[in-house]
Amino acid sequence: MEKNQSPPNRRKQTIAMSSNSHRGIMLVLSSPSGAGKTSIVKELLRQESNVITSVSVTTRPARAGEINGHDYHFIDQETYYQMLEAGELLEHAEVYGNFYGTPKTLVSEALSKGKDIIFDLDWQGTQQLSQAAQADLVSIFVLPPSLEELENRLRKRAQDSEEVVRRRIASASHDLSHWAEYDYVIINENFEYSVECVRSILKSEKLKRTRQPSLHSFVNCLRNPKG
Q1: By percentage, how much of the chain surpasses pLDDT 90?
Q2: How far apart are CA 20 and CA 18, in angstroms?
Q3: CATH number listed for the domain at residues 26-213
Q4: With bands split at pLDDT 50, 70 and 90, how would you rate the model's confidence at 225?
Q5: Domain-by-domain residue ranges, the chain?
Q6: Do residues 110 and 142 touch, judged by C-beta distance below 8 A?
Q7: Rg of the chain's alpha carbons, rounded to an integer?
Q8: DSSP string across the chain
Q9: What pLDDT is attached to residue 226?
Q10: Which of 25, 117, 128, 214 is in the most buried spot, having the most CB atoms within 10 Å?
């Protein structure tokens, strides 16, 4: 046998790598109005191609420029009540006489495909999601650096009347009282840093053992390459 020739009965064993796919995550951001969660959500969507927004159903009429199926699924009130009674909504709420809800089927399909879904919800909506799908949920509460800064941000937006701004400031204390119900808390003093924190949370959560369904077979393959 030549010196560099391998014995005929020895073969290189290769381990077939599994896809090791990750189940998607329901990522919820909540905060008092003006703390910056909506801006964080928009930037996260820009930077993370695997993150999509949850498209809710609503009974309110479409506004100018809104696209059915993209901004909302616009439905009538009868259809909404049918979905509600059938248990087809993960969370629901009434806002100024209009009804909103998150369709269970659409979310489930996206998660099974490994898509991460981001929700911009208040604490009440987050509680409902937690009860309906706790295993898939990761919740983040965004705090302002101070109440003074919160008020400044609300006024700088110039989107609301003085009465609305005062109402939002008044309700901030109640919203803030729910911070301890969340998995993570971010003080949004520096926007870029806050976005990076959310991205880091998302990456870490996807590495959890329970969110890697193919790990079991992959580790078995590592342990028993000839099996």
Answers
A1: 61
A2: 5
A3: 3.40.50.300
A4: confident
A5: 26-213
A6: no
A7: 23
A8: --TTPPPTT----------------EEEEE-STTSSHHHHHHHHHHH-TTEEE---EESSPPPTT--BTTTBEE--HHHHHHHHHTT-EEEEEEETTEEEEEEHHHHHHHHHTT-EEEEE--HHHHHHHHHHHGGGEEEEEEEPS-HHHHHHHHHHH--S-HHHHHHHHHHHHHHHTTGGGSSEEEE-SSHHHHHHHHHHHHHHHHTSGGG-TTHHHHHHHHH-TT-
A9: 78
A10: 25
- Other C-beta atoms closer than 10 Å to the C-beta of 2 total 5
Q: What are phi and psi of 111, to 5 degrees?
A: -65, -40
Where b means 16+ CB within 10 Å and e means fewer, 37-46 reads beebbebbee
- Mode of pairing for the β-strands spanning 26-30 and 116-120: parallel
Task: Measure the CA–CA gap between 227 and 221, rounded to whole angstroms.
Answer: 7
CB distance 137 to 90 below 8 Å: no
- Other C-beta atoms lying within 10 Å of the C-beta of residue 54: 20
**137 has pLDDT over 70:** yes
Neighbours of 186 (CB within 10 A): 22
Q: pLDDT value at position 19?
A: 42
29 CA to centre of own chain: 7
Predicted TM-score of the model (pTM): 0.80
